[in-house]
Amino acid sequence: LRKRSTLTSDKYLRKNRNDAISNRPTFMIIGAQRSDITTLSDYLTQHPRIIQSKKGKSLGFFTSPRYDAAVTEWFSLAAKYPDHQRDTKVTEEISEASKKLTKEARNEYDRLFDPKLLDKDSKAVLFEPSPLYLFMSQHIPKRVKAIAPWVKIIAMLRNPIDRAYSQFQMEEKMGEQNITHYYSTFEEAIFDDVKAMEESHLIPKGSW
Questions:
Q1: pTM of this structure
Q2: Segment 188-193 long-range contacts (CB within 8 Å, at least 24 positions apart)
């Protein structure tokens, strides 16, 4: 990483850790399954100042609707203002209940990271790799924006055909070991996935 990159610049870290919470994560990695998120995380953590969350990959914190009342109010207020006024105005107008809920959410999220690491090195950067966040794209961006707006997002994508076939090969191997069901052909796996997405209303029926 370059010395003055977004991730490691002193100015950026001070800006995003200005509320006395020392273990605040700086970025997250999202992406499709089999798109090398684990590989990227391994490469990044070779740098002594880039540190992964305590529980490793797929924390899943933002998959929970637990704090959605505060998130909904945040976006309801935010819709009334232009970008340059939004954060200031929402902070002024949001209800005390939502402020309390947001603070609770931030504290819970921060506890997933080790504060002692930043005590030892103030320039260290913490991150979370969670592939599942991309799949739940209807909800995750709003929750991240309302609860952890300082977090930057790295999205890992891959040629969809290569990705799908890589997953098929992985599940085929798991099936041979009697760990899970597997499909006899790649075509069967694709049609079954499409059917599942249609039933879950992720895509319109008959669109494939």
A1: 0.73
A2: 189/164, 190/164, 193/164
Burial class (CB in 10 A: 0-12, 13-18, 19+), 141: middle
Q: Give the tens place of pLDDT for each residue, 7-55.
A: 433 443 444 444 434 457 899 999 888 889 999 999 999 998 898 988 7
Q: In the block, which residue shows the tokens 């540190």? A: 51
Q: Return d(Cα 109, Cα 193) in angstroms, integer.
A: 32
Q: Are 57 and 41 in contact (CB under 8 A)?
A: yes
Backbone angles phi, psi at 50, to 5 degrees: -115, 115
